[in-house]
Amino acid sequence: MIEDISKKIAWLKANPKMLKGIFRGIERETLRIQKNGIFSQKTHPYSIGSSLTHKWITTDFAENLLEFITPTSDNIDYLLSFLTDLHCFTASKIKNERMWPFSIPYLTNKKKNIQIAQYGKSNLGKMKNTYRIGLKNRYGDLINTISGVHYNFSLPLSFWENWNKNKNKENNSDYISSGYLHLIRNYYRFGWIIPYLFGSSPAISSCFLKNTKKKYKFKKNKENIFYLPWSTSLRLSDLGYTNTKILDLNIMFNDFHQYTESLKNALETPSRQFTNIGLKDIYGNFKQLNTNFLQIENELYTQIRPKRKTENGESLLEALKNRGIEYVEIRSLDINPFSPIGISKNQILLLDLFLIWCTLVDSPKINKIDFLLITKNWERIIYEGRKPNQKIYINTKKETKTLIEISNVIFKDLYEIALILDYNSNDLSYQTACKEIKLFFKNPDLTYSAQCLKFLIQKGMKKTGLSLANKYHKKFINENYLNINKKNLEKETIRSHQKQIQIEQEDRLTFEEYIKNK
Predict the structure, then answer these.
(1) What CATH code is assigned to 6-172+189-249+331-517?
(2) Which of 24, 165, 284, 350 is the most exposed place for a label (fewest CB within 10 A)?
(3) pTM strictly above 0.85
């Protein structure tokens, strides 16, 4: 089922420097809440900058849904330190509010009062706002307040060059893009390992269960919070995570040209469902950017997706077509409530190992039958991942193996890769993380979801969430004096407001003309 990659690992060990220069980036979402746990009704704080133009602090779907974006770096400690500084800076500006520490918001059946994010009066700002109005009309506003962490990962150019030569391939300008698609296919096959280990949303508010066919028998606590005894990440389920059906869009990851063309078709083909919503309301206000299957590329909600930095005025699709895949974005990470900043170093170390492994292991092309089976595996882990002796499918014949059997094979390879990375950094961090996390399979009670569920059942979501939010807020306030990026963040606040004004003043087109030109 899983290829023996001992020869490939030996090849890496012979030249470990090929893995020096892995670049990473983190995007962490978190809801601003009032001290009582209810959604903040305040607009995005002016004191932390313009959500339209700030490099590192913006908003996602809602006005109170903060998003912290780190620079890319090959230094994990710097990345985590910068993310901490963003939290400390923000906490110092919103002293009467808190940052919610879970992916799933705490909600009662009362009115939600979700304010869609605003970005000013420029055409660019109106487009970002209209896109979110479209998300609300297409999928609902509540579901778009669910938060997550995105992990961006790229391998060094020297690795790809040597990898291409080692495979005796002809000189092909697309070999890096092909390599990342190879990684993506394997992430779909085996990436369920991430919600098993790090899923932190085993419970969900009753508000998310309305008008939903329940496949599983949920239990309920006194708060009207529903949970499953073995679930890991309900955020990734059809109850929470808004997931575009990539099979329906015929978007596969087997060939770079086919991927970009299928993405282009989804961006240009009208959907009957979304056409029925209408483009504008009776007052002439846009209800969505367009009526196509995808308004923009970001609406393709998948567990992992290929990315490329865009240049001014360039769309993601254009950037991919022009220069190929630059990195992958992992989107299946819940907020880690046991970390003040939503992610820990051990998670990053494990992700590095696993993504390198996905690159090395043989990755046959995936057809629709394969993908349906892959989807069933993810669903099984999401809803019942910690069930004793849980099994998943290993081939289209529907043969199965237990998680422990599969994890033993994977972690044996991960440990060998850890030796290489630790050799490069002259420490033991990767090996230590690998050993510690492997225990999660033998003892599911160590998983994040099991620990979360224990607290949520005993103390409730509101009490647990507010306790953590207050604890982390105090920590951020107390540590803000250590914030080495404080001056840069103050400067960026000023610069971002000035940049927004400049963009607004330079507009020459009407909004409708602007949209047509996009």
Answers:
(1) 3.30.590.20
(2) 284
(3) yes
